[in-house]
Amino acid sequence: MASPRSNTQMFALRQPPPEHLELAGGRYRLARVFKHDFFAATCLYQFDVPATPPEAVPRVVVKFCRNQSFWGLPLDWIGRFLAGHEEAIYGVLRGLAGVPRWMGRLSPTSCAVEYIDAKPLDHLPSPPAGFFSRLRELFDAIHARGVAYGDTNKRSNILIGLDGRPFLVDYQIAIRRRDDLPWPVNAILRRAVAYLADKDIYHLYKHKRRLCPNEMTEEELVLSYSRSWLHRLHRRLTKPYRALRRAFLARQYRKGQLLSPTAALEDHHQPEKAAWRGDGHKRI
């Protein structure tokens, strides 16, 4: 539980998520929180019975999108938009191997998908041989359905299954073509999807170059360094923002004001926070 000094406005939820919930005819119990940031709390729930029925999904990942205000400004509309957006993306990708199964909406600002028993790419020194080739096949299949993932830069979103297969999770900023929309919106979306799909491939081979350099082909090596002028401009414009954001978060953390309402359930290393937290073993 957050202390009175905690700046809970920096998190999606003011209070911890419910200990139990009903989903798909089953009762689930909160087991842990993977991540809790400004936009969402991503949590693991497991079937709350001694013996899980064969037809039941034993574990699910529930995303509670933002439902509290920020400095008096209501932001629950962001949570509704994010939950609806992910539902639409998962609908387009339904049945695709490597994409978690959609389990449903729990509320206007929360949704659930099947839990994948896997390790994030940033938790392992290197993936098994051939992993990135299979990951490229997954990206090609996603792109073929008119979706660009857009968040490939985060290794934590790329999972390695127990059998070595790749999975992609967290489609919060993915975008899709919308042929039902009028021109020029449709045309703009098509160009944006094509651009971000190219960035998916760039980041894929950037990770491969850093983790499995001996498996790189000459063509992949070129792609891993291929940055468009727009990409370079984006990096130049966002670098000062990232630096200011990290400095702010680090200062809040040092003062003891950046304590997550779900800190007690975040008992694992979160590499994404290490850049500003300064101690990979402390929790926020």
Please summarize what this structure is.
With 284 residues, the protein is of the alpha+beta class. The chain has two domains: 115 residues, Phosphorylase Kinase, domain 1 (2-Layer Sandwich); 116 residues, Transferase(Phosphotransferase) domain 1 (Transferase(Phosphotransferase), domain 1, Orthogonal Bundle).
Offer a few descriptive terms.
284 residues; alpha+beta; Phosphorylase Kinase, domain 1; Transferase(Phosphotransferase), domain 1; 2 domains; globular
**Number of individual domains:** 2
Q: What is the overall shape?
A: globular
Provide the CATH architecture of the largest domain: Orthogonal Bundle
- The percent range for helix content is 25-40%
Distance between the termini: 11 Å
Structure commentary:
Strand 2 and strand 3 form a beta hairpin. This protein has 6 helices and 11 strands. 33% of the residues lie in helices and 19% in strands. It has helices at 76-92, 131-144, 185-211, 218-224, 229-254, 274-277; strands spanning 20-23, 26-36, 40-47, 59-65, 102-107, 110-114, 118-120, 147-148, 158-161, 166-168, 175-176. Mean pLDDT is 87; it is low at 280-284. It has 2 domains: 1-115, Phosphorylase Kinase, domain 1 (2-Layer Sandwich), CATH 3.30.200.20; 128-243, Transferase(Phosphotransferase) domain 1 (Transferase(Phosphotransferase), domain 1). The radius of gyration is 20 Å and the shape is globular. Helix 2 runs antiparallel to helix 3 (185-211) and helix 3 (185-211) packs across helix 4 (218-224). The chain has 284 residues and is of the alpha+beta class. The strands form 3 sheets. A 6-stranded antiparallel beta sheet has the order 1-2-3-4-6-5, with helices on one face.
